[in-house]
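lol ok so funny story. i was supposed to be doing the assay writeup but got distracted and ended up predicting the structure for this chain instead. priorities right. anyway since i did it might as well share w the group, maybe its usefull for someone
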Amino acid sequence: MTTTTEQLSATTLLRFATAGSVDDGKSTLVGRLLHDSKSVLEDQLEAVEAVSQARGQEAPDLALLTDGLRAEREQGITIDVAYRYFATARRRFILADTPGHVQYTRNMVTGASTAELAVVLVDARNGVVEQTRRHAAVAALLRVPHVVLAVNKMDLVDYRESVFAAIAEEFTTYASELGVPEITAIPISALAGDNVVEPSANMDWYGGPTVLEHLETVPVSHDLTSCPARFPVQYVIRPQSAEHPDYRGYAGQIASGVLRVGEAVTVLPSGRTSVIEGIDALGESVDIAWAPQSVTVRLADDIDISRGDLIAPSASAPATTQDVEATVCHVADQPLAVGARVLIKHTTRTVKAIVKEIPSRLTLDDLSQHPNPGQLVANDIGRVVVRTAEPLALDAYADSRRTGSFLLIDPADGTTLAAGMAGESFATQAETAVAEDDGWDF
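and the output, tada:
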């Protein structure tokens, strides 16, 4: 007889994030998904029921299943990203419930950065608002391949098809302009449970899937092995023991692609070349390894390699650069200004850098570019040009979400300033020249 563990190991994993404006019902939708899919423990449900009764509510407030912080429960809002893990017979899920307030837009970047699907909620009474457009823009920038528009609170507009159709058309037009490849619109009532797990009896005009049905069946296309191999070195292993006197291995997690024994590789940024002599995984030698396995790679030549270096097949090695052009989402409270000295963290490598230029800031209302804003403030999305002290082996974010992303960090206190996506964004990039800086000494 097949055990539950064996069944789950045979299913696929979907990472998805929820987003939307304040009070659109994200936490209630997540709670409904967990409750109706029988993914809530009995004591959790009893605790929610007790709190709901104490507030004078007749039905359990399912939003309490995700709003875990005291401030969240007291204010009835989501502040931090809440991660939830659940499974059905068809698929396992990692869910990131992200806040709706404008000042927490940066939290959505965290939640959606590894997501294959984003559920964007819209209140049927309010339609598409600025925060809806902001979340759609973030999903597009992060190259989330699937977006679900969940038009919530349909029970408050008498389940009218015309309301749903108008919102779906407006959002789909906007998201398509951003370059979102797939958009699925679903009318729901998270509070009543319509079209969340079970089909709604109140919307016979809708013939599409429920939210859970779509989550269970959407193609998961995060095959990291189809991309060129990238191996950021995390640690150099030199036991220098009697058993292994000459062992030198480079440990890390394969970010993408496949590594094979005998393959010619290039070490970046030095450009030195060698051949993979051996791969050790879980204490055993293997001939092949693939993303996202953690392995130790041994090379045929003794090369000066340390943490932060990147090993890649010589035939498909990325180019190195000290001039990084990227789209960033600013996540810190303090502004990011031209001339700011920062640290840039890319995979396992951290180098000094300076912000040479901020060519534009994105205006989400009409997707226009505000030229040369001078600085970016919290939750702004804009283009930056950064000069690094040492070369980086960056891929375009469109080609690799893992090796095309980076963080800008305040060198004074380690605060994360911005999350960056290298290369072109969905918007038209203005052609601007990088100004010379006489104070540049890298």
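The two ends are 64 Å apart (CA to CA). The CA atoms of residues 323 and 387 lie 5 Å apart.
back to the writeup now i swear
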